Amino acid sequence: MKLGSWSGLVAACLLSSIALLPGQSLSDFEKTVTEFTLPNGLHFILIERHQAPVVSFNTYVNAGSVDDPPHKTGLAHMMEHMAFKGTETIGTRNWPLEKKALAGIEHAYDLLDAARAKGSDEKTIATLQTGLKEAMEKADSYVVPNEYDKIVEENGGAGLNAGTAEDATNYYYSFPSNRIELWFLLESERFLRPVFREFYKERDVVREERRMRVESSAQGLLVEKMLLAAFTEHPYRYTPGGIAEDIENFRMPEAFAFFKRYYVPANITIGIAGDVDPKECRRLAEKYFGRLPAKPAPPRVATVEPVQTTERRVSLEHQEQPILIMAYKRPDHSDPDDLVLDVASEILAGGRTSLMYRELVRDQKVALAAGAQSSFPGDKYPNLFLVYVVPNMGRTIEQSEKASLDLIERIKTRIEPGELERVKTKLRAGLIRRLDSNSGLAGDLTYYHVAFGTWKRMFTDIGEMEKISGADVMRVAKKYLVAEHRTVAWTYQPKPKEGK
């Protein structure tokens, strides 16, 4: 699958090929799948796997950081942090009183914001800040911390987590199969009656995550700087972590408005894989999720990134190990060239048999690590084909860039015998590997359904990939991997001061 984080890039670079195992055909697999859509628009994909009495659930919300409102970057990420805070019956000691206390927080915040806007004196601001703190403490007194998590754990649940990417947000965990109805109750309640308790505490957590993952990391800062250079208009220019100033200033009502707009049944797909009875699951889906009111699906992002016509270059001084990134504009996942670009990425950097590893790391020793990713940071909209290199000790960014560009030019004119088969074998093996995991399968099938309108693309893409020729790879390399569509970003270490 297409990964959207720096750790994903490194992981993709380090994955080694595995032998192809006997797998299921599409017709065999299709017999285990049941799909249905509730009248409110919420779609379910169920996969029966009765080998063990466990079930994995994945709720795929078709909204990510790309949908953040202007000047409110990080808001989609806040949905992840609010996900398991509870409901009107879970996580509270006294909901009526807590509800009043939460309203009190917003009233106190309104007064503080108004005073700041007027330019009030420091004493007034300090008094209002004290009032806000007291309002938060009052609301906190009604909270039962982590009650949602505890209910899941006490009933044998595992892996409770969520993730926000550019294009979507996923919520997932597993339960014993005899606790399926509890999952339907818990998951539907947090969509039906969510309570954004401890919102401002979690906002501080989101701000701290940005500090750790971006501001304290050369990799994070460089990726952020590269995206801001590569995209001048489209919201792919902002990472899910958001911009510091936006995070520090958005409010709970704005987050709740985001939830009401994007967290509607027509924008949600749920994957369930494991020891399930489809008829019972449908009954429970209608009983619990059928309560959610039908609303129109939100519109897609309308902003179109202007065509890039010249190379862009940005650099960053940092004490950490230098890094080079080269990113080329490419179309979205619906383009016919999407699979060919995946193959080109694998030929360049798909493990230890790839061109970049053999040439840059093993033979020339120009790099400590090198990799490529066919879609970055997301793939729903036109995005980037990305190549990165970590230079070896004593080697420069310039040497790494030249060596990488030489390999990119090579695949425009020549594909070595056996390279295509190696890549196709690896990609088939990747499918088998994903089929082996309930949780991975539930996530992948929801992605394919939302991205392409059918989960079957997970299988048919393999067949289409078999048709790709060396000429196809050379064609897309010539078309997309060109200087005028390229953004180059790198870090460099400061020069030692004189006398040291």
The fraction of residues in strands falls at 15-25%
Instruction: Tally the helices.
Output: 19
The largest beta-sheet arranges its strands as 1-2-6-3-5-4
- Coarse morphology: globular
Helix content: 40-55%
Main β-sheet, in a few words?
Answer: 6 strands, mixed
Write down the Rg. Answer: 25 Å
| pLDDT averaged over residues | 92
Total count of strands? 11
Low-confidence stretches: 1-23
Ends apart, CA distance between termini: 48 Å
- Write the element-wise H/E pattern from the N-terminal end onward: HHEEEHHHHEEHHHHHEHEEHHEEHHHHHE
Q: What structural category characterises the helix and strand content?
A: alpha+beta
Structure write-up:
The chain has 500 residues and is α+β, with helices and mostly antiparallel strands. It contains 19 helices and eleven strands. The chain has helices spanning 6-14, 26-30, 75-82, 95-118, 122-140, 147-154, 180-192, 199-215, 218-230, 244-249, 252-262, 278-288, 338-349, 355-363, 397-410, 419-435, 438-452, 457-466, 470-480; strands spanning 33-37, 43-48, 54-61, 158-164, 169-176, 268-274, 312-317, 324-330, 367-376, 383-391, 486-492. Strand 4 (158-164) and strand 5 (169-176) form a beta hairpin. Helix 4 packs antiparallel against helix 5 (122-140), helix 7 packs parallel to helix 12 (278-288) and helix 14 runs antiparallel to helix 15. The longest helix is centred in the N-terminal third of the chain and has 24 residues, at 95-118. The two termini are 48 Å apart. Residues 1-23 have low confidence and may be disordered.
